Amino acid sequence: MEKSLTKSFMNRTTKAQGKRLSIPGLIVMLIGLVFVIVSPMILSNYRLNLVITILRIAYLAQCWNLMSGYCGQFSFGHAAFFGIGAYTSSLLYTELGVSPWFGMFVGMAVAGVVGAIIGVLSFVYNLKGDYFALVTLAFAEILRVITKNTDFLKAAQGVSITFKKNWKVMQFPTKAGFVYFALALLVLITLFLFIIQRTKMGQYFIAIRENEDAARALGINVFKFKMIALILSAMLTAVAGTFYSQYYLHIDPEIVFVSSVSVDAIIPCILGGVGTVFGPIVGAFIIEPVSELTNVYLSGLPGMNMVTYGLILVVVIIALPHGVLGFVDSISKKLGKKATSPKTSGEKEA
User: Fold this and answer.
1) Measured between alpha carbons, how far is 55 from 43 in angstroms, rounded to an integer?
2) Under a CB-based contact definition with an 8 Å cutoff, are residues 137 and 262 in contact?
3) Residue 312 φ/ψ region, left for φ over 0, alpha for ψ in the -120 to 50 degree band, beta for the rest
4) What secondary structure does DSSP assign to 162-194, as a single string?
5) Average pLDDT score, the chain
6) Does the pLDDT value for residue 312 go beyond 90?
């Protein structure tokens, strides 16, 4: 069992690692950045909602990518940290009047503690691969059940937030504020990943992902760096939960602690390129519009939107086993070989 899911995942990760955007790729990313910046000026509120969703999912995917993509600890339970961030900031705000800006950091701290508990229980007993993924999934489910049956946490009815149109409580008068806030979060975490993969700690993460035993033999404190990756990922994921609650103004256990939240974090990474800086962003900008199109055009046929969405996803993953960035990289290498082959043959003739 341990080798079934994670062997495939690690194969994708190893192939994807090191894929960097070419010059055309960087140009496309810059065009996308400019588009997002000007989107509040040219798009309707409906389409802006899609832009915000893409940015939110891309940020969430980057959080998952930190632990699972770079450190190789596959998680199915990031909904736990997402829900903790959403509930902590929302309850502090609605019950005690604490600003969500402050509540966001409290949520990060709580998620970090829960992440540390999961890490200790898993890594001390050397749980990894599918077993670790199941532990994270179980924690998310436990939190969902506890929240749903606890009156103090508003039980099944959830938490509703009054919209005040005030940036001091993380609510903006127009969707433009949410677009720029989500964009800022995405840019910051992308820069963080870009920097961390070039540090010694980032190299330790990758070494652990590739081969834990070899990393341990080289003197790397595997337990320590796996804990760091897990806690950092948990804390950053909690921020996404706070953003969600302040944007949608209502949360309940069946929204923020469900497995679909974890899937939202995983799919963009797999589609764009696991263990890469820009892969999750590329994946989010592909998968969310596809999801929206299937919802719009197949809404009259019950269930067909999800079936079509699933089929498209399966076909894309099979066709691009190493993600979009891996596919682009392989194409650029083939073109590079073709460009240099005439020169090589000419040198041999001479």
Assistant:
1) 15
2) yes
3) alpha
4) -----GGGT--SSHHHHHHHHHHHHHHHHHHHH
5) 87
6) no
E strand segments, the chain: 159-160, 250-251
Domains of the chain, CATH where assigned: 2-335 (1.10.3470)
Judged by average pLDDT, the poorest of 235-239, 255-259, 291-295 is 291-295
Cα–Cα dist 69/279, whole Å: 10
Output Rg (C-alpha) for the chain, integer angstroms. Answer: 21
> What are the tokens at 91?
């309850």
Sole residue written with tokens 């903006």: 172
Task: Give the span between the Cα atoms of 235 and 215, in whole angstroms.
Answer: 25
The model's pTM: 0.89
- In terms of residues, how long is the chain? 350
Tokens of 52: 């915000």
Q: Worst-scoring range by mean pLDDT, 5-14, 228-237, 314-323?
A: 5-14
- State yes or no: pLDDT of 117 exceeds 90: yes
- 309's tokens: 């969405």
> What is the per-residue pLDDT for 215?
93
Instruction: Report the 3 state secondary structure along 231-253.
Output: HHHHHHHHHHHHHHHHHHCEECH
Tell me if residue 160 falls in helix, strand or coil: strand
Q: Which has the closest alpha carbon to 66: 216, 224, 246, 202?
A: 202
186 residue type, one letter? L
Between the alpha carbon of residue 170 and those of residues 68, 178, 246, the distances in Å are 29, 9, 6
| CA-CA-CA-CA torsion sign (23, 210, 281, 235) | negative
Phi–psi pair at 159, nearest 5 degrees: -115, 125
Strand partners, 251: 159
Which residues 6+ apart lie within 8 Å of 246 measured at CB? 89, 100, 161, 169, 170, 171
pLDDT for position 32:
87
